[in-house]
Design goal:
339 residues; alpha/beta; 7-stranded mixed sheet; 25% strand
Length: 339
């Protein structure tokens, strides 16, 4: 087995080889096909996002593949099935889990994520619990399936911000991969001439144009007030702070991008009161993974074309090149091909 191992203490990444892991009774081993690099992974690598506290960790929480071994008690899956992994789970015993909010669970949620606290998909093989594995519907390509996890997070965000009517003036902040996917999601739901994408980098503004959504694309300095909804995909405190005055009365700010734990946001409470503003946080994908799979099928090649989205595929051995391209903004996303 070949993996990218992250030394949590030293903050170093290296290509390593090891014996194939043997799945426990309730686990499944997956031969990974495609595994994405998320913005959260970059924050983990630079030490600004929490993860496993010590030892070695295989990152990668967005991956697709084929079942190649199952534990003795596994009943729902069999060798040879094409699957995708939901990296998140709960303890199923606390009040949050019993209330249907496992993403708030202290022992689960983001605190037990595959690829963040448990070894994930930056590897030729990954072992995960049976109940976190979903069989791919027919007609979905394996490389597009690697986008299921982020799409499932968008599905949770969509549920949180609805209703979103055709005709609403919407601002999407940031044209990285998440901003691009949000733009596509809005277009899929019928929003056409009333969406603006704000992005400081010209390279990324050009990526929006390639998607042929007929949206306005502007630098932040060009954006004027008058929005009913702002979806922040940048994770930038200053960007969100600047967006609040752009909202109309009754406007909503959706905080979707993952900010640094140290970022601050200053808001005038009087404006929140006068305009009846709403701030909506979105945290991962509680029970929305099937919706992510449905979005894969609905969006298809029209929206999930790697070239148009600025996604580039790399071998695991090209990880340095992939990370540098992401940091330079040359691409919106990097995906490892392991099959």
């Amino acid at each position: 087995m070949e993996s990218l191992s992250f030394d949590v203490t030293k903050k170093t990444l290296a290509l390593t080889r090891a014996e194939l892991p043997v799945p426990a009774a309730n686990e499944v081993r997956i031969r990974v096909a495609y595994s994405g690099i998320c913005g959260t992974d970059l924050h983990i690598l630079d030490g600004s996002f929490p993860c496993k506290r010590s030892g070695l960790l295989t990152l990668g929480h967005e991956f697709s593949g084929t079942v190649d071994a199952v534990g003795s008690s596994v009943k729902s899956l069999k060798v040879g099935q094409k699957v995708v992994v939901d990296p998140n789970s709960g303890c199923d015993t606390c009040d949050y889990c019993h209330g249907g909010n496992y993403h708030f669970c202290d022992a689960g949620g983001i605190n037990n994520t595959v690829g963040i606290y448990r070894d994930g998909g930056w590897s030729t093989h990954a072992v995960v619990p049976e109940n976190q594995v979903h069989v791919l519907p027919d007609g979905i390509q394996m490389h597009q399936a690697a986008l299921t996890e982020p799409l499932s997070c968008l599905a949770h965000g969509w549920d949180k911000i609805n209703p979103v009517h055709v005709g609403l003036n919407v601002l999407v902040i940031g044209a990285g991969i998440i901003g691009l996917l949000w733009s596509c999601l809005l277009h899929l739901h019928g929003l056409r001439k009333t969406v603006t994408v704000s992005e400081p980098q010209e390279k990324r503004r050009n990526m929006v144009t390639k998607l042929d959504l007929d949206y306005e694309v502007k630098s932040p300095k060009e954006v004027k007030e008058g929005f009913d909804l702002v979806v922040d995909c940048s994770g930038s405190g200053p960007a969100m702070e600047a967006a609040v005055p752009l909202l109309r009365r009754g406007g909503r700010l959706c905080v979707f991008g993952v900010a640094s734990p140290n970022a601050k946001l200053t808001i005038e409470p009087f404006q929140v009161y006068m305009k009846e503003l709403n701030i909506i946080g979105v945290n991962i994908n509680p029970f929305t993974f099937p919706k992510g799979l449905a979005l894969l099928k609905a969006m298809g090649d029209r929206y999930l074309n790697y070239e148009k989205l600025g996604i580039k595929v790399y071998l695991l051995s090209q990880y340095r090149e992939a990370l540098e391209a992401l940091k330079r903004g040359d691409i919106s996303k990097a995906v490892f091909k392991l099959e």
